[in-house]
Automatic annotation (TrEMBL):
InterPro entries from the UniProt entry: NAD(P)-bd_dom_sf (IPR036291), SDR_fam (IPR002347)
SUPFAM superfamilies xrefs: NAD(P)-binding Rossmann-fold domains
Superkingdom assignment: Bacteria
Name of the molecule in the record: SDR family oxidoreductase
Pfam families named in the record: adh_short_C2
Amino acid sequence: MGTFAVTGAASGIGAATARLLEDAGHTVIGVDLRNARIEADLGTAAGRRAAVDGILSVSGGTLDGVAAIAGVGPDLKDAGAVMSINYFGPVALLDGLRPALAATGAGRAVAISSNSASTVPLVDEELAGLALAGDEHAARDRARAAQAGLPPELAASAPSITAYATSKLALARWVRRTAVTPAWAREGVLLNAIAPGAVLTPLMRGSTDGAADRDVDEFPTPMPLGVFGEPEDIAFWVHQFLRPEARFATGAVLFVDGGTDAAMRPDGY
Ligand code: NAI
């Protein structure tokens, strides 16, 4: 049985993923702010270092897989923190754990992006560029400036919407750029992203102003399957990417969103 690190393990999609892996007999090293084996704030450089060190210490330096799931929603008031937690957190964690994944010869890594990256019109390309350049300080400043320019209604309900969608776009691009580099691909470490849509978790309930508790057909984005997702619906696909048998997919971004992205951008491919 394998050893897997899962961030965001205390709630929602991360908790469902940890449960699925444990039920399959694996050892899970959960990371979260609270209620996890390793408690660390992935929004800070010190917290990321502590998380990587803690995982390496518990695992003995060898990992079968990493699922970087922890994140915050667009309702967070500090758009700079959204960039730090949703982009710089998973990137530092995955980079830091790459050698432990390479040590098995068949490591697997998954990052959680979002269909907001392709369906929210407020994505800021310059902000994505700053993130991909690794400039956290400038990215935080730019995210806060974008926040200040939002129309009042949006600023009240989703103050970090630009940072949220852009952090998830940048993360998907980072996965695509990184997965094909020799340090990952030729070391047998496969790296993929999942882009969920509306999934019933505390994050979604906090971010959608109660829309999740109303009729699915009144949701702001189309939901072709007529249902919201459950955390287990995403955990299933995370698990597939983490399996050793998942041998030929790397740099993929898989929409698991009930059809929202396909409905909104049928020709966006
Ligand atoms: P959730 O709120 O249920 O779980 C997120 C977990 O991340 C929480 O346990 C939280 O404590 C942890 N976390 C937040 N900030 C952290 C930090 N600084 N350091 C360490 N841990 C931190 O939310 P959910 O929905 O399970 O979200 C998981 C991921 O899925 C997130 O990256 C989110 O952006 C993404 N996502 C969720 C969607 C949804 O509709 N629920 C849609 C698209 C993407």
